[in-house]
Every structure is written in structure tokens, then in C-alpha cells.
Amino acid sequence: MTSSAASAEQGETQTSRRTELITPEPAEALAGLLDIDPPSGDEELPALWHWIYLLERRRQRDLGPDGHPTHGIPAPPGPGRLRMFAGGRVSMHTPLRFGEPATRTTRIVRTAEKDGKSGPLTFVTVRSDIEQGGRPAITDEQDIVYRAPGSTLPAKPSTSETPAHTAPEDGLALDVDSVVLFRFSALTYNAHRIHYDSAYAAEEGYPGLVVHGPLQALMMGELIRRSGVPLVGQEFAYRLVAPAFGEQRLTVAPDPDETCVSAQVRDGAGRVTATSTLRPWST
Known about the structure:
Strand order of the largest sheet: 1-2-4-5-6-3-8-11-10-9-7
Number of helices: 4
Largest sheet: 11 strands, antiparallel
Low-confidence stretches: 6-12, 157-163
Number of domains: 1
Structural class: alpha+beta
Mean pLDDT: 88
Shape: globular
CATH class: Alpha Beta
CATH topology: Thiol Ester Dehydrase, Chain A
CATH architecture: Roll
Strand content: 35-45%
Order of helices and strands: EEHEEEEEHHHEEEE
């Protein structure tokens, strides 16, 4: 297992590179969280499960008050800026194989400044290219937003007058609580305190622990995968449209309004919190 980072000269792109053996144990851990049987060691890694592999494991002294690294890829654009996950795109060239090393190369490909309702926003797109056996396997782009401290967020919808949303027969359900969020944070080596520290989440303006964006994206991918639709040769694009807070049942179902393969996540009040589409990509 190797990891390296290069701080490039001004005008060049900073990159981070990590190589490690793809072993079954992390996949077994994720399968346990999802309450499903793990893939056997002679199978390929399920689509999107690469999010628990090839992770940066930064030293404690590199982390800021929110639990995120204060430098590297990406780093906050200014002191006190708060981090949010907005969405991303994953293009599957070929599944990762157990028992073989893979290499992930990560860099920032886009940065944009915008003015939002809550104040200035910085949008950063981070791209990771994963190779195995000298061939491209996965291209993964993630969109991250930084907002000013003290900016307002949408309030949690009241569930007292809204019955719990139930998954349709062709959907999935996931009961999230502090234990699930803590375990997913551990699996993805994500130390952002909004997912496991209620007091800190309140400091950032959240009414409860925040459900991870990648966890919601993973569930939409699982719905597609378990329906028998292959993700190889396709681009899985997902977007977080509203934050999900606290203990509740999330439901994942196909989106009936789309002509392509798509899915959406709803929170316990029936509000859509994430959407996804699956479309073929061209080389």
C-alpha cells in the first residue's frame, strides 16, 4: 500500500496518488451495514463500492475543527468555510477485481465562485481516476460546495403531520440512525463531524445529524444494480437536492418521470433529497 501527494508549482495541478490491494474485507464491512450478503473473493467489486477503498488517511494534526483536512485535495478556500457535498458522476469502465492492486489519482478539475441565497459559495469538482492492471477502471467526479459560516440552511420538514414514507415494491428502504451514520463515516474514513456529533452539527446550523450524500447515492446505485441493470459502460450521475437529517427511514425508488434509468431518495416525510440518472457514456 502506497500513498503520495505532490504539491505542484504555481500554474500546475496538485495531484494525490494512492495504490493498494483490493481485498474483500472492506466490502464485507459495507455489506454488513447494508444487511446483505457480501461478495465472495472470486467476484468483482459491486459498482460504487470503490468509495470505501483507496482512501486518504490523514494525520490527526492535519484536520480542522470540522474534522476535514485543512490542506490537500480539496482544501477550504478560506478560514471558517463550511463544506457540503453536492453530487457527482461516476463512469464505470470495468469493475475492480479482488486480489489485485489498484491505483487512484486525484486532482481538482474545476473551481467556481457563485453567489447563493446564503452568501458566497465556492464550487469545487474533484476527479479521481482509478486504474487496475494498467487499464482505466473508474472515473469519479465529486462536486463539493463551501459556504460561509453562519449562513442559513433549509429547516427540517415537520414529520408530525406526515406519515412515514414507505418504499414501493420495486424500491429499497434504509433505516438511518446515529449508529448507521457513524459506521458509514468509519467505512469511508470521513471525519466530518456533522455526521456523528450532534452538538457540532447544530453549530453548523443543522437540526440533526446529516445523512451522508454518498450513502444516498450508493443506495440509488444499489437499486439499479439489484434490478439487474449493469453500470459498466454507463455514467451514474447523482445530485443532492435537499439535506436529510436525523433518525428516519429513507426510501429509494425508480423515478417515474424520467425516460432514462433513474432513481430518487425520499426522507421520512416523503421529500426528495437525492436524484440520479444512468446514461451510456462515449469514449
